[in-house]
TrEMBL record:
Residues passing through the membrane, by range: 52-73, 80-103, 171-190
Protein name from the UniProt record: Plasmanylethanolamine desaturase-like
Domain of life: Eukaryota
Membrane topology: Multi-pass membrane protein
Entry's Gene Ontology BP terms: fatty acid metabolic process
A Pfam family: Lipid_desat
Chain positions covered by the region annotation Disordered: 1-31
Sequence similarity: Belongs to the fatty acid desaturase CarF family.
Record's keyword terms, sorted: Membrane, Transmembrane, Transmembrane helix
Main location, first listed in the record: membrane
Length: 275
C-alpha cells in the first residue's frame, strides 16, 4: 500500500498503483485500474444534463427561500434557528451515511437507470478515491442538488401560498428544512475536500480542523478495505456512535438473512477487475 504525500507533508492513506514503465497494467488502485477506467467511461452526456438541471433548480430555490427566511426573521426565532441548524446537520450526516452505506453495500452498476447513474460513482470511488478531486462542481454536486429540490420547492410553495401568520408559526420548521437542504447539497463537496490534500482554502481546512465538516484524517477510516464503516460524510459526527452501536453491521446481517444477498459483493467484483 502506498501513500500519497502532499506538498504540505500530509500523507493520504490510499492504495495507489506502483509505476511500471510507461503504463500500469493490472493496477490495483487509482485511475489506471481497469475497473476505474471502465466506470469513468460510463459517465454520459445525459447524466451531465441531469446534473446541470439539478444544480440550477436547487440553487434558484435556495436563493428564493433564503430571501423569504430573512424577510420573516424575528429575534424571537434566534434559538429556533440555532436548533434548526444543529438538527439539520445531524439529519444530513445520518442521511449521508444511510445513502452512502446503501450504495456501497447493495445493488449493482448493471441495475436499470440507477446503476450507471447513481451506483457507478460509488464503485469508482473505492478503486480510484482521488477521482472525485478531478470532478468539477457540477459532477460533484449534481446528484445531491437533485435530492433537495422537492423539499425546497415545497418550502417555496408555502412561502407563496400561506398567510404571514402561518409562516411565522412554521418558521422553526423552515429553518430546520433549509439547514438540512444546505448540508445535504454540500455533502459531496465536503467529501471531495476530505480527499484534497493541497490547495484548499484556509477556511475549509479550519472547518475540517474544528470537525465542523468531515476531516481528512477521519474519513481515511472508511477507505480501509473492505469499506464497511464510517459511512457518514457530511460532518462525520455520527460515525463513532453508530460504529459503537454496530448499527451498519446489524442492518447488513438483517438484510442478508432476509434476502441472501452478500454485502459489498458488487463493490468487490469491480475492485478485482485487472484487465
Amino acid at each position: 500500500m502506498a501513500s500519497t504525500e502532499s506538498k504540505s507533508g500530509s500523507s493520504e492513506n490510499f492504495h495507489t498503483p506502483e509505476p511500471s514503465g510507461s503504463e500500469q497494467p493490472g493496477a490495483r488502485w487509482g485511475p489506471q485500474h481497469a475497473g476505474a477506467r471502465e466506470l469513468a467511461e460510463l459517465y454520459s452526456p445525459g447524466k451531465r444534463c441531469q446534473e446541470w438541471i439539478s444544480v440550477l433548480i436547487c440553487f434558484t430555490l435556495m436563493a428564493f427561500n433564503f430571501c423569504y427566511l430573512v424577510t420573516y426573521f424575528h429575534l424571537g426565532h434566534t434559538w429556533y434557528i440555532l436548533l434548526g441548524i444543529v438538527g439539520g446537520i445531524l439529519t444530513a450526516d445520518f442521511a449521508s451515511g444511510l445513502v452512502h452505506w446503501g450504495a456501497d453495500t447493495w445493488g449493482s452498476v448493471d441495475l436499470p437507470i440507477v446503476g450507471k447513474a447513481f451506483i457507478r460513482p460509488f464503485r469508482e470511488h473505492h478503486i480510484d478515491p482521488t477521482a472525485i478531486t478531478r470532478h468539477d462542481f457540477i459532477e460533484t454536486n449534481g446528484d445531491n442538488c437533485m435530492l433537495t429540490i422537492i423539499p425546497l420547492a415545497n418550502m417555496t410553495a408555502n412561502f407563496l401560498l400561506l398567510s404571514p401568520a402561518e409562516i411565522y408559526r412554521n418558521y422553526p420548521w423552515y429553518c430546520y428544512v433549509f439547514a438540512l437542504a444546505i448540508f445535504v447539497t454540500l455533502t459531496n463537496q465536503i467529501h471531495k475536500w476530505s480527499h484534497t490534500y493541497f490547495g484548499l482554502p484556509r477556511w475549509v481546512t479550519f472547518l475540517q480542523a474544528c470537525h465542523i465538516i468531515l476531516p481528512r484524517k477521519h474519513h481515511r477510516v472508511h477507505h480501509v478495505s473492505p469499506h464497511e464503516t464510517y459511512f457518514c460524510i457530511t460532518t462525520g459526527w455520527l460515525n463513532y456512535p453508530l460504529e459503537k452501536l454496530g448499527f451498519w453491521r446489524n442492518l447488513e446481517d438483517l438484510i442478508q438473512s432476509l434476502t441472501g444477498e452478500k454485502p459489498r459483493s458488487d463493490d468487490l467484483r469491480w475492485a478485482q477487475k485487472s484487465k
